Structures are given as structure tokens and as C-alpha cells.
Amino acid sequence: MPIRADIAVAGGRIVALGPRLNGDEEIDVSGSTLIPGLIDSHVHLTMSDLDTMVGLHRPFSYPFYQAISNMSATLDCGITTVRDAGGADLGIQQAVDDGLVEGPRMQIAISMISQTGGHGDGWMPSGFSIGHQIAHPGRPSGLVDGPDEMRRKVRELVRAGAQVIKVCTSGGVLSPRDDPRHAHFRTDELDVLVAEATAAGCGVMTHSQSTDGIKNSVRAGIRSIEHGIYLDSEAISMMIDAGTWLVPTLLAPQAVLNAVDAGANIPAASVRKALAVIEAHMDSFSRAVAAGVKVAMGTDTGVGPHGSNLDELPLMKAGGMTPQQVLAAATSSAAELLGMSDEIGTLAVGKRADLVIVGGDLFDLPKLKGNISAVYKDGTRVRG
Ligand SMILES: [Zn+2]
After folding, report:
1. 252 and which of 62, 86, 225, 300 could share a cystine (Cβ 3.0–4.6 Å)?
2. How far is the CA of 12 from the centre of ligand 1 (A)?
């Protein structure tokens, strides 16, 4: 719950918190609420259009420039940290860190590891390959089969700068040639993946929609289940026992349907799958919340428009979380998932001064974005 206090910031960090603090420069925010910078645990900063034909005709480097406006739209939401689940490479991260372009702090996966015929395989029946993420020197192909290739791929991604490893342990919606109800990768491949990632100090996040794929992932020790569309009660209790996180991305299937309504050219199979998963997705999420699964906010933005990230929050509330729980999922819980609790996620002395100033009722989630009057990242005002 909010308390009445001043916050003193120096050197990009919170140095004091309490009543009647002094400083060289004072900003009066009385009547507003200060919250920590928000964290989106699942974005794709280099993805902007779902339309297959639009993507095909864009020059190779165009998505990197689109990422600049995507990152800006993310800051508009008060989101100062993201986990990029595939697409952003080390160059984008470094450009933000060096102040060359403005954007949120990020943890990057670079490429999605996928089996042949899996969610990250862009192969089309015509023989052309039109994946959403073209491989390049900074972003290796994520396609692997077998434990040996898996070992090499994780090492290759770590070499390229990945700080989290993303794997697809089931089919998905936007990949027309697979089924979200099927498990991808076998135990031997997932065990190698987790061992190599762990050795490199990286957590593993998995695109996982199928019940079996989710269970295989939990057994392998993967840290977070992304989407989690088909959760049965066994999967939920396995996640609770193992402490596995759920990043629901409730916006994603709806975003696919919205894009179709707006005229985007999306394969018919993907549209069918988006329609098929929506109900199961919300039902699984509600049961997971009721059972006490750890939840971190993530949106899969890039599937939907960048800047619409906070539309996820009312959906999480509709799934049974209180507004307080929803905001915790987008701050302290997400920081814990990212392994960054020492740095971000709460307002506490010593943490980075990522601050969002919110007018009106903080817990009116549909209005949150419009109520944001200023955003600070590392003590520097980036909005307002
Ligand atoms: Zn995603």
C-alpha cells in the first residue's frame, strides 16, 4: 500500500526514503503516487508487423530502426526494464546502455531455440523460409535438433550476448506448421539446455503452450513458462512445487485477431489457432492464480503494438488477481524472475531510481497509462 514520503535520488540510485528529505533540486509530486519503473518480462522489440507480406518486402535493417520507436513507445508506458524474448541483439542493448538511443534497460534472449518444424522455424510449404527473425552474425539461427546441437547453440547464444535463454517447448500460434498442443524437444535436449544455460549464469524462459511441453519444461528446471495456455491441475502443482514462474501474455492471441481485423495478411492456420486458444488461455491463467503460481507480467508485445503493453494489466485482474497483485507482478515479482531484485522492482534505498509518477487512482488499471505524468530511468527523467 502507498505511504507518504519523499525520495532522495543521487547518482541514478535511491539514496534515502522518508519524511522531509532535502536535496539540490526538488520535484513536488504531492497528490500523485510514485511506483517503481514497470517491467515487461516478455517483449519482442524488433517485431513490429505480423503481416507476412509486409515483413517480406522490408529491407533487412529496417526492423532495427523500428526498434527505436518501439523502445520509445515502451518507455511511454512507464516500462523501464524489459526481457526481450527473441529479436533484440547485443547491438540494440548496447546502443541503449550507451545513450545512443533511448529505451528500457533489457535482458536479451537474442534468438528463440526451436526444433525443426517448431515455433521458431520459418519454413513454409512453398519451400521459402519467412521467419520473423532472420539470422545474422549478431543473431544466430535458433534451429536445433538433438543434445549436441543444443549444447553448441546455447554456447553460441551466450557468446553473442544472451543473458537469458529462450526455448520453444511446444508449437505456437503464429507458426503455421505446428500445433500448440504438441510438446517440442525431448528430455535429453532440455537437460543439456538447462545445464549449459545454468553454467553460463543464464535463466531459461520457454514458449510453452501444450500441457506436456509445460510439464517437460518444469521437470527440466526451466525458470519461466511463457503463455502457459494448456495448464492442467498436475502442471499447476508441478509449477508450485518447483517454484516455476508463469508469464501469461494474455494479450497475445487477441493481438493476432486484432491484426487480422485491421487487415493484416496472416496465415489462416495462425488465425484458427489464435481463436482456438483464447478461452483455454484465460481459464488456465485463472486456475494458476487461484492455486498460487508465481506470476510475472509479460505481454509478447511485437505480436501486439508496442505501447499497448499496459492493456495486459486489466486482463490479469479479470483472471482473478487484485490490482495490487497485478502491479507487484509488473514490478517486484518481475524483478525477481529476471534475477534483478537487488537493482530494480521496488522503491528502496540502494536501488536504481526507476520511478513512475502516477496521478489519479493507481489501482484503476485501464487508466494507468493515461495517468502517468512522468517516468525516470536511473534517476533521469525520460518522460514528462
Ligand atoms: Zn513471444
Report:
1. 300
2. 31
- Residue 43 CA to ligand 1 center (angstroms) comes to 6
DSSP states of 229-298:
-S--HHHHHHHHHHT-EEE--THHHHHHHHHHHTT----HHHHHHHHHHHHHHHHHHHHHHHHT-EE---
Distance 301 CA to ligand 1 centre (A): 8
Report CA(225)–ligand 1 centroid distance (Å): 11
Q: Alpha-carbon distance 129 to 134, whole Å?
A: 9
Gap from CA of 191 to ligand 1 centroid (Å): 22
CATH number for the domain including 126?
Answer: 3.20.20.140
Ligand 1 center–CA 200 separation, angstroms: 23
The domain total for the chain is 1
In a domain, 378, yes or no: no
CA of 183 to the centre of ligand 1 (A): 17
Domain membership of residue 298 (yes or no) is yes
* Domain extent at residue 268: 37-344
Kindly report, residue by residue over 109-166, the tens digit of the pLDDT: 999 999 999 999 989 888 888 876 789 999 999 999 999 999 999 999 999 999 999 9
Residues with CB under 5 A from ligand 1 (ion): 85, 300
Does the model's pTM come out above 0.90? Answer: yes
- 381 falls within a domain: no
Interior CA angle at 138 toward 134 and 142, to 5°?
A: 50
Assigned domain for 355 exists? no
